[in-house]
Specification:
Length: 212
Amino acid sequence: MNPDLIDHLVDDLRPTRRGTLQWLLLGAVVMGAVVAAILMVPSIGLRGDIMTAPATAMFWIKLAYTSVLGLLGLLAAMALSRPEKNNWPGVWAVGGVFLLTLAGGLWQWGNAAEAIKPVLMFGGTALVCPFLIVVFSAPVLAIMLAAMRRLAPTSPALAGLAAGLASGGAGASVYAFHCGETGLLFLALWYSLGVGLVALGGALLGRVVLRW
């Protein structure tokens, strides 16, 4: 290639500010979560006991679980959006968080009275919970994938999976302000299913949207 042409192509290049990638993806998650909240509140509303729910442990456990999943997905997306990265060892932490929550749920379920066990496992919203998490995670995923198109992931499906995990965690966190379920096993099963579906959708979309 002609040296003059190369000089012309790189003449306007400027170094990217440190932390630009991180702020871009963090901003995408926050913006998506705000959009999800704006959609959720008028459509299905906040839980009826929203003023007293923060005094219960389960309210914070749900938010902690979904937030940790979202944070792990965000960290993975930040790593996998770089052209030199095609894996993320921290993926094992996702399995660890899930297994810890599942173990706690099984312990709670095993020590509960027989009449309470179905409530701890299925609650009253098991059939709609994963679906609603997917719905309220969709705007987060759309904004995240749009942001990641400006970056350079070399494993589009894996990067999309990470974006889906981050989006699912954010969408589930928003949904938690509506959900009044109190079973830890319910959280481990149905919230995880919803987040997992979003992650899978992210991987499928990433293969197409993030290819370059």
